[in-house]
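Proteins fold reproducibly. Next comes an illustrative record:
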Amino acid sequence: MALVKAVMMMELAGAFASPAPDPMKPGKDIAKAFANYLKMGMNAGGFPTSNVVDAPTGMAIGGVFAQQLPIGALIGSQIATALTTMALTYMSGQQIGPPIAAPSHTPQLIQLFSGPQPAGMAFAKELSGILDTWTKTWVVSGLIPGAPPVPFSGPLS
């Protein structure tokens, strides 16, 4: 399989089609959609995703929304931190450690949450674009078994 931004965008669009009465729900929806997206990925060695943990991230992002912070930069920064923590749980076949995931998504998330919030579909498109671009910068390393083992390192696809 491959990372398909449109799948994540449509999942997010469905989640943000109407306002959520519970502030925790949007956080859980973002984490779940991102986890589902990551589960479609493959590492540079050609091995599929084996695990990514989304529940704590959903609660963390929901907690950010529940705080109703008045400053978009704080919202974007805290959500970026939660997503980076989730990135470190990413595992794929023959991977030898967590991915190297630079916080390059933080400025875009700060910008997204600093202005007026777009409608559900536009928000989903913007957020999925930010997460897709960021994910494709991760570097995942591993070893293909053999004698000798063959190292690989590169972005997810």
Observations:
- The beta strands are 49-51, 91-92, 140-144, 150-154.
- The mean pLDDT is 94.
